[in-house]
Amino acid sequence: MEFDTIAAISTPMGEGAIAIVRLSGDDSIQIADRLFNSINGKKLSEVPTHTIHYGHLVDPKNDLVIEEVMVSVMRGPKTFTKEDVIEINCHGGIVSVNRVLQYVLKYGARLAEPGEFTKRAFLNGRIDLSQAEAVMDLIRAKTDRAMNVALGQMEGRLSKLISSLRQEILEILAHVEVNIDYPEYDDVEEMTHKMLAEKALYVREEIKKLLQTSEQGKILREGLSTVIVGRPNVGKSSLLNSLVHENKAIVTDIPGTTRDVIEEYVNVRGVPLRLLDTAGIRETEDIVERIGVERSRQVLKEADLILLVLNYSDQLTTEDENLFEAVRGMDVIVIINKTDLPQEIDMEKVKSIAAGHKIVTTSLLEDKGVDELEEAISSLFFAGSIEAGDMTYVSNSRHIALLNQSLQAIEEAIDGVEMGTPIDIVQIDLTRTWELLGEIIGDSVHESLIDQLFSQFCLGK
Ligand code: GDP
Ligand code: ZN
């Protein structure tokens, strides 16, 4: 394929001292040569591939130095885009890197659209679609674990799995073909049915497994929605503060800080939490009063985890009991705070009302018990089917939708087999499953879908 030469700033804005202007396309090296004066006088078109060169960017009109730079020359196809790639490393901040970009654009490159580098990698066959999407997830990944998932996907784990499933289906389809071509052989038909049933069931189970990981994938990307509840003054705000201060707050670009509840993103031992601070409201303005019973019920209902705070130096009240009632059936950790004060709470009563939920005692004032709480959070989360790192989390909504459609198609095929539907009808559902799975890895995707996907990328990626 042939494309023009694109350029963009490829480092995150404001991050680090070095910024990179990246070019990709046939004219990359030529454009760089027009602007770059190497310290040793060499032309970039003559240097070996994958080498770095020190020198100055110079305005061709008046020979004035624009910037001190290092230029990397990487000739295709051994590059991310499979095209010739130039990377101009500038020391200055955003102003100087912008200036370099302007020169590059003036001398022949076109400003890349968001995601266009990755799009080219895809269109040039360097990566498949799910890998391209993984790059996008990587850019957005908010925690280390989410990062690992994205990386795993990029290495093609999902692609491999999908490919092997499609291979299974192809084998069935091949048998079906034989069956249709030689209908007179009874044993072929019998075999086909048996094999069909077996393989189709296997494919269905694998698709289901993948779908099961998707919920966890969502949690990893968006954070475990965690709501802190408790009567006024028990220490909700204090809890939020200590969780935020002891853990690196995750910087997020998700717009979501609502008027009613304050959100904070933290990474607790690898578990990304989206903390919903219902306590970010004046003590006198009870959360339920303020946002209304319905609304707070809704917040609770959508939570993945509840941190229910009680006061150690106060007796249990009906209000506490109502809270337990409201969060019944959910994942709850009970926190008994203010252990530095004299005990008033009846622990036996708490235990019975907590009904098996993990109980942690804290004195947030004295900074005690937070470690235990963090431990409780992470073991609750990882006690599930999640095995860090070695599972394929499906975390992309397009993948999830396609997997659901594939599941439906394979189930129709299975129903067909079970009801003795003519095999060439079953074949249609099988083919459809195969196609839908193919869409996940970018086979049989339409141009418009591709454009839409890649436009979601950050600039310069
Ligand atoms: P909220 O209304 O549930 O959000 O409670 P706050 O976090 O605002 O705390 C209410 C009051 O209790 C504040 O004065 C805190 O300093 C105090 N507090 C919080 N945790 C503790 C604790 O562990 N021990 C003691 N003695 N006071 C605490
Ligand atoms: Zn408070």
What is the element layout, followed by pairings?
Elements: E1 6-9, E2 19-24, H1 28-35, E3 36-38, E4 51-58, E5 65-74, E6 85-90, H2 94-106, E7 110-111, H3 116-123, H4 129-140, H5 144-154, H6 157-181, H7 186-222, E8 224-230, H8 236-246, E9 262-268, E10 271-277, H9 287-301, E11 305-311, H10 318-326, E12 332-337, H11 347-354, E13 358-361, H12 370-382, H13 397-418, H14 423-440, H15 447-454
Parallel strand pairs: 1-7, 8-10, 8-11, 11-12, 12-13
Antiparallel strand pairs: 1-2, 2-6, 3-4, 4-5, 5-6, 9-10
Helix pairs in contact: 4-5, 6-7, 6-14, 7-13, 13-14
The chain binds guanosine-5'-diphosphate and zinc ion.
Function: Exhibits a very high intrinsic GTPase hydrolysis rate. Involved in the addition of a carboxymethylaminomethyl (cmnm) group at the wobble position (U34) of certain tRNAs, forming tRNA-cmnm(5)s(2)U34.
Keywords: Cytoplasm, GTP-binding, Hydrolase, Magnesium, Metal-binding, Nucleotide-binding, Potassium, tRNA processing
Pfam family, one: MMR_HSR1
Describe this structure in words.
The chain is an alpha/beta fold. The chain has 3 domains: 6-126, Probable tRNA modification gtpase trme, domain 1 (Gyrase A, domain 2, 2-Layer Sandwich), CATH 3.30.1360.120; 140-218 and 396-441, Up-down Bundle (Four Helix Bundle (Hemerythrin (Met), subunit A)); 223-382, Rossmann fold (3-Layer(aba) Sandwich). It is 47% helix and 17% strand. The chain has helices spanning 28-35, 94-106, 116-123, 129-140, 144-154, 157-181, 186-222, 236-246, 287-301, 318-326, 347-354, 370-382, 397-418, 423-440, 447-454; strands at 6-9, 19-24, 36-38, 51-58, 65-74, 85-90, 110-111, 224-230, 262-268, 271-277, 305-311, 332-337, 358-361. Strands 3-4-5-6-2-1-7 form a 7-stranded mixed sheet, with helices on one face. The radius of gyration is 29 Å and the shape is flat. The chain starts with 5 loop residues before the first strand and ends in a 7-residue tail after the last helix. Mean pLDDT is 78; it is low at 12-16, 248-260, 279-285 and 384-390. Bound molecules: guanosine-5'-diphosphate and zinc ion. Zinc ion binds at residues 236-237, 279, 283. This is tRNA modification GTPase MnmE. Its cofactor is K(+). It comes from Neobacillus ginsengisoli.
